[in-house]
Amino acid sequence: METKDRNNLFWLAAGVSALAVGRAVIRSLTAYDFNGKTVLITGGSRGLGLVMARQLAKDGAKLVLCARDETELENARMELTGNGAEVLVQKCDVTDEQQVNDMITNVQNEFSPIDVLINNAGIIHAGPVAEMTVQEFEEAINIHYWAPIYTTLAVLPAMKSRGGGRILNIASIGGRISVPHLVPYSASKFALVGLSEGLRAELKKYNILVTTATPGLMQTGSPRHAYIKGHHKQEYTLFKIMDSSPITSIPAEQSARQMLNALRHGDATVTTTAFATIGELLHRLSPGLTTDILALVNAILPGEGGIGKNRARGYESETPLSESWLTERTQKAEARNNEV
Length: 340
What we know:
This is Short-subunit dehydrogenase. The protein is an alpha/beta fold.
């Protein structure tokens, strides 16, 4: 009897292993090839967008980077072309529908049809919700929800006519779990997740595969550009330490690889960092317990007051602690990813 049980376990393990190998082979054979494809990255001049651009350039993609800052765009273009990439940069405010339509038309007429769209542009507001105003919510929803709508609708007709395409919407774990002191950010990312999943369901019949990314914290160097409210120095110091800690955050390069691999394989969703994955699982199992835990976290965060409803940028909120060894990873990412 024991021998029979051992044999059954052996064949079960062998079957599982064969299925895993078969799945890996199929994924490898059916993976989307970025070589020669034109990839548009919004917010591509710095941070995560630039990290992704570097990785896509190594895969032979032709890059279109759009952002609002011409100097940042030119810096990114010079770096990428210096390493052999084919790059077009476009100044564009993606919260302006007309600017988006003009930019897409120009790219498709003067450069190349867009094969892959990566909606990456973002904004962060940190602080107690009681210090937020309608302005913060509007800014967040405009860039995290309306901007991807504008870009998607602009590239959709050409993708349909060519028989396919890929879209990566970079939301956040904050689009699965609403995080204290990041309510405008989380609410707008929830909207993006809903949009992205709906697009996937409807566009698959055109061979346009949409991937929703919900990454956890990653070291892009972007906190210095965040808008901070309330006790902005304490708020920013905590945020930057969390952003830099290897317990709660991972290198942007690692997160970018995971998201681009999901895009390459046409996966529906991808969540990066163990911290975010555990949080997502807990929220699915018990939303009430998750929000109760977050309420306890909120109780130890800085309260209302300080500069109140006024706001300061991260780089205006530095403290000795936020510039100490505790944030070394984030500081290095700032310099590396065109954030300074």
